[in-house]
Amino acid sequence: MTVANGQAAVMTGQPTIVLLRGWMRDGRHWEAFPAVLSQKLREAAVANPSGSGAPVIIAPDLPGNGRRCVERTPATITQMMQAIREEIDGGPLLLIGISMGGMLAAEWVHRHPDEVVGLVCINSSMRPHAYPWERLRVNNWLRILTRLATTLVRRSGETAAIRSLERFIMQLTLRPEFHAEARLEQWVRWTEAQPVAPANALRQLRAAAAYRDPLRAPLHIPCLVLRSLGDALVHPVCSERLARAWRQKLLTHPEAGHDLPVEDPEWLAEALASWYNSHWPLKKAAEPSPK
To answer: What's the 3-state SS for 32-98?
Structure first.
């Protein structure tokens, strides 16, 4: 199994797994999750002669974020999706999106249905299935805009400003027990190396707020919706309504915050591996012959 940040390798039998991040985040912010998912997929493999080898996992970056930080973020979710799609070597694809990444994934399914064979949305929200104050909890709107305005006033490359912004994002997306200083310092280093311009952050926020669900039930591909009941950024009811609208299965983590892949990668990877193997059976690697 391959875990990569860049282009998908040519493969047969299994869809390429594409991990799509949300607002101001990039492939690095999945942290250990891609490796954990890779391991869980291997463990879920069965001795099935009709099964195939394990999939490639990639985590591309949105223009304006991560390794593409010098680029201008497109103004709409559709344009963002197309910019990411240009880096991918075609289907079949299994899209796994968290938050705004779920919107990118849904738009991909809508615009290029022949490329996508599976869809997973984690703690995502879309119009018309939720009110604005549910999609971004009302007490966070002013905090986010104030923080971005402060960053604009201060030098965006200043370490103190970056640390303040990253601590704020951590408070929004992770429960307090996951606010480790080591994690914060790692996020600060990542942002110092590849900063997100405040203007790009605002474009992403505006595009996400305006996005409307383009899909209609029944979906033509397997789909899974997940939510975290401890999500302080997006109300968990958003995922519940999305699953209901699409007539799809809803899985609930009883405690985790918004960034479920970071807080509980084991739980999420196990759930996804089981679901994956039910649709794309994995073939267990042959045991070495005894000498």
So the answer is: CHHHHHHHHHHHHCECCCCCECCCEEECCCCCCCHHHCCCCCCCCHHHHHHHHHCCCCCCCEEEEEE
Q: CA–CA separation, 193 vs 162, rounded Å?
A: 11
129 with 214: CB under 8 angstroms?
no
Interior CA angle at 218 toward 128 and 269, to 5°? 85
Q: Rounded to two decimals, what is the model's pTM?
A: 0.88
CB 17 within 8 A of CB 38: no
Residues 6+ apart with CB under 8 A from 180: none
Q: Are 66 and 12 in contact (CB under 8 A)?
A: no
Q: What is the pLDDT of residues 2-26, one digit of tens each?
A: 455 544 333 346 899 999 999 999 9
CA distances from 202 to 29, 76, 152, 209 (A): 19, 12, 11, 11
**What domains appear along the chain, each with residue ranges and CATH number?**
2-279 (3.40.50.1820)
Below-50 pLDDT ranges, the chain: 1-2, 6-12, 47, 49, 138, 153, 291
- pLDDT tens digits, residue range 92-137? 999 999 999 999 999 999 999 999 999 999 999 998 887 776 777 5
User: Tell me, what amino acid is at 164?
Assistant: S
Question: Token pair 């994995």 is at which residue?
Answer: 282
